[in-house]
Amino acid sequence: MYIALIARDKPGALEIRKANRADHLAYIQETGIVAQAGPLLDDAAQMCGSLVILDVEDMAQAEAWAAGDPYAKAGLFENVELIAWNRVIG
Fold first, then answer.
1. Which residue pairs, CB below 8 angstroms and at least 24 apart, start in 61-65?
2. Which of 21, 28, 32, 49 is the most exposed place for a label (fewest CB within 10 A)?
């Protein structure tokens, strides 16, 4: 099943994002369950959140992935939402 992870960064947290980006990208590679991913952008085209599509067995696996993400461990996110997603196009 696909789960969309939508996370918004805490205000003023761009430096936290930048400092943990390499570890976050390595985590994506290591875990092998990310189908698509990319940063959300604000009006100034600065990274301000994340959209990650996870290909997982169940919501528990998505929750575990989200908890293990280096961005989450660094306290980057103001909020995180996990939503079941139905892939129709692409």
1. 61/33, 62/3, 62/5, 65/5, 65/31, 65/33
2. 32
Q: Is the pTM of this model over 0.90?
A: yes
Contacts of 39 (CB under 8 A, 6+ apart): 17, 47, 48, 49, 50, 51
Question: Within a domain: residue 90?
Answer: no
pLDDT at 45: 96
pLDDT tens digits along 51-76: 999 999 999 999 999 999 999 999 99
Whether residue 14 lies inside any domain: the answer is: yes
Count the domains in the chain: 1
Average pLDDT, rounded, for the chain: 97
For the residues of 23-44, what is the DSSP string, one character each? Answer: HHHHHHHHH--EEEEEEEE-TT
C-alpha span between 23 and 39 (Å, rounded):
15
